[in-house]
Write a structure and sequence with these properties.
The complex is a heterodimer. Chain A is built from no helices and eleven strands. Chain A is mainly β. In chain B, the strands form two sheets. In chain B, strands 1, 3, 4, 7, 8 and 9 form a six-stranded mixed β-sheet that branches. Classes of the chains: A mainly beta, B mainly beta.
Chain lengths: 125, 108
């Protein structure tokens, strides 16, 4: 059973950088069958895909966040990480890491089959 | 970017059928996935590729996709089905992803 666990500070000051890490149990982080994604959810609101990374280090980001986001991977530690710069109160949310299944038919068909429990990050001074 | 519209809420009596819609322009050309999210928990995949069920998801959950509307159907609704439900597709055929606005299902 795959498990994902987010970790990182729960409080970040405005204008600073939010940093989170997701630890993946098992060996699937080395598999060619998955991307590794970050998704966020402000309180009482919907889900927003932030971006993903492949085991090679190749990344893709949501255009609305691209200028502020960096996702990296450390396969030896079975971890991938998120950095979001210049945060404001609008970035306050529960952040999830998730495993994205790469569809044979192409990325337009991908879905998220395993999720971490989520971690709340509050942006406040 | 591609917009997915869901009704904010839906109420259904136990034992009845709930139909949750996800509207999008020509959505039938996309592959739609559905997630169930209970309060304080992470989303759980309940339908992928329009109508496939992951292992462990009851047969009561089914999906369809036609025209401008995809539908998640929950048959013989139980109290444990009370949750928020989100649809998801790729944005304009790319490897960017969007989620629907979410539907809160209340079991009466």
């Amino acid at each position: 059973q795959v498990q994902l666990q987010e970790s990182g500070p729960g409080l970040v000051k405005p204008s600073q950088t939010l940093s989170l890490t997701c630890t993946v149990s098992g060996d699937s982080i080395n598999s060619d069958d998955y991307y590794w994604s970050w998704i966020r959810q402000p309180a009482g609101k919907g889900l927003e895909w932030i971006g993903h990374i492949y085991n090679s280090g190749s990344t893709n980001y949501n255009p609305s966040l691209k200028s502020r986001v960096t996702i990296s991977i450390d396969r030896s530690k079975k971890q991938f990480s998120l950095k979001l710069t210049s945060v404001t109160a609008a970035d306050t949310a529960v952040f999830y890491c998730a495993r994205e299944v790469i569809a044979v038919a192409g990325p337009a068909f991908d879905y998220f089959d395993y999720w971490g429990q989520g971690t709340l990050v509050t942006v406040s001074s | 970017s591609y917009v997915l519209t869901q009704p904010p809420s839906l109420s259904v009596a136990p034992g009845k059928t709930a139909r949750i819609t996800c509207g999008g322009n020509n959505i039938e050309t996309k592959s739609v996935h559905w997630y169930q999210q209970k309060p304080g928990q992470a989303p759980v995949l309940v339908i992928y590729y329009d109508y496939d069920r992951p292992s462990g998801i009851p047969e009561r959950f089914s999906g369809s996709n036609s025209g401008n509307t995809a539908t998640l159907t929950i048959g013989r609704v139980e109290a444990g089905d009370e949750a928020d439900y989100f649809c998801q597709v790729s944005d304009s055929g790319s490897d960017h992803y969007v989620f629907g606005t979410g539907t809160k299902v209340t079991v009466l």
